[in-house]
Amino acid sequence: MKRRFFFFVILCFFIFSGQVFPYFVEYKEQYYKLYHIHYEQEPDDIVENIYWLERAINADFCNPLHALGKVTTKKEWEKYRYMFMMHLNLKMVEQHLRLGSKYDKQAAYFYNYPWKEQNIESLSKAEEFYEAALVYWHEAKLWAEKANMREFQFLFLDSLPFWENERARIASGDLNYERTIKRELLRLQKVREDFMNMDDSTY
Rounded distance, CA 106 to CA 193, Å? Predict the structure, then answer.
């Protein structure tokens, strides 16, 4: 009786396994859907989002039929791809800035001296994430330029207004992460110098 039951369980597994595991993450659109904003932005949550976004950037596009917005022509499909890459890189900028802020120190207070070395190390991590954000910003700008080519001048993807808004703001200079990132890097350098100048006499 036990043997029959065992074989029945095995048989059910093979019959229903195709239904249990039907979803494989393969395309940009699928990886992007795994990216989400957590209620509490802990470093591990941000790292998880960076992982999914990086996978999305490196993956292939799905069939236009399954695009995140309505695509009916080859020109729309081309612009969609450019704007999606722009959007993914912008999200990478945001996530790296958030992660950097977790390690950043806004000021070097005298009472932080006992943890001087730890604070300097933390600032180095923040600097690394801010510099990575700058790289992704340059990538986002390149893709935005492609989406702003003359041939797309009168082509607007109505189903993706947020992406279109990002593209337009980059073109006008209203959205400029480089300015923000460089300002943060300059401030960070000043804070690091303040920490490095700390000694027993300043505590």
Answer: 13
Residue listed under structure tokens 């806004």: 106
Q: Tell me, yes or no, if the pTM score tops 0.90.
A: no
pLDDT digits (tens, 9 = 90+) for 71-123: 999 999 999 999 999 999 999 999 999 999 999 999 999 999 999 999 999 99
CA dist 21 and 25 (Å) reads: 11
Residue 63 is which amino acid? N
Q: Where are the domains of the chain?
A: 24-202
CA 130 to CA 191: how far, in whole Å? 15
41 sits in the region (left: phi over 0; alpha: psi -120 to 50; else beta) called beta
Structure tokens at 123: 């600032």
Query: Closest Cα to residue 100, out of 63, 126, 128, 77?
Result: 126
Q: Amino acid identity of 142?
A: L
Q: Are 53 and 90 in contact (CB under 8 A)?
A: no
CB-based contact 155:75 (threshold 8 Å): yes
Residue 9: predicted pLDDT: 43
CA 10 – CA 94 distance, rounded (Å): 47
Distance of alpha carbon 162 from the chain centroid? 16
